[in-house]
Amino acid sequence: xxxxxxxxxxxxxxxxxxxxxxxxxxxxxxxxxxxxxxxxxxxxxxxxxxxxxxxxxxxxxxxxxxxxxxxxxxxxxxxxxxxxxxxxxxxxxxxxxxxxxxxxxxxxxxxxxxxxxxxxxxxxxxxxxxxxxxxxxxxxxxxxxxxxxxxx
Length: 152
Description:
The protein is α+β, with helices and mostly antiparallel strands.
């Protein structure tokens, strides 16, 4: 009798743990700054690509001072805890309203081909391409994140 009760309790705990793990997770607010050759990089997309299986990508865009705030599920909600590869893309490759979008909306806007009319700011592939980036970040971060990019 007690053996069946123990099995049922253990089974219930496994089911509850699985259900709890299926949620969105809790984000950590994260902001940072991107500079290129010592100057703030305005209007660029900062894309945190999740490296953990339970992770989820986060995205933001830089303002005139090069400051970005990440969004995962809602605007400026931050990123899930974990490890990320980071890419920084020039403003001409994304919609300027990106900072008001969720990652899903931003990807849809980018695939729709909405672009800016000014020439691109060249960002080397070691910062802008997922397969080549040298940028990585752990969340939560110790303070604000700073990415100091060099064009050469």
